[in-house]
Amino acid sequence: MVIANPIYDVVFKRMMENERVAKFFIGTVLEQIIETVEVKPQEFTYTDELAGLAVFRLDFIATIKTETGEYKKVLIEI
Q1: Residue among 32, 40, 31, 38 nearest 58 (CA)
Q2: Which of 55, 36, 35, 34 is nearest to 45 (CA)?
Q3: Strands 53-65 and 33-48: what pairing?
Q4: Is 51 exposed, middle or buried (0-12, 13-18, 19+ CB in 10 A)?
Q5: HSE-up of residue 70 (Cα within 13 Å, Cβ side)
Q6: Could you point out which of 3, 19, 32, 64 has its C-alpha 20 to 30 Å from the C-alpha of 38?
Q7: Which residues contact 29 (CB under 8 A, 6 or more apart)?
Q8: Which tens digits make up the pLDDT trace of 31-52?
Q9: How far is 23 from 48, CA to CA, in rounded Å?
Q10: What is the 3-state secondary structure (H, E, C) of the chain?
Q11: Is the distance from CB of 57 to CB of 78 less than 8 angstroms?
Q12: Cβ-based neighbour number of residue 65 at 10 Å
């Protein structure tokens, strides 16, 4: 069995397209309960030719359940 390494942009992007994985990852990082997560089609890749570096950004809109029981929508950029 081959296991893909999520430190690579292509693998991470593929993982985050799965709603269950995205909810788990974002909820773990924020230490919040994520009710829903929506992947926005706006993605951005910046490439620095001299450094050989590419930066990839994903946008999400998440509905978070706060400690008071309220629901709040937040924009998350990874």
Answers
A1: 40
A2: 55
A3: antiparallel
A4: exposed
A5: 4
A6: 3
A7: none
A8: 888 999 887 766 666 677 776 7
A9: 31
A10: CCCCCCCCHHHHHHHHCCHHHHHHHHHHHHCCEEEEEEEEEEEEEEEECCCCEEEEEEEEEEEEECCCCCEEEEEEEC
A11: yes
A12: 14
CA angle, residues 27, 46, 15, in degrees to nearest 5: 35
6-34 confidence digits (pLDDT tens): 777 677 778 888 889 889 988 898 888 89
Sequence spans of domains, the chain: 9-77
| Intra-chain end-to-end CA distance of the chain, in Å | 29
pTM above 0.70, yes or no: no
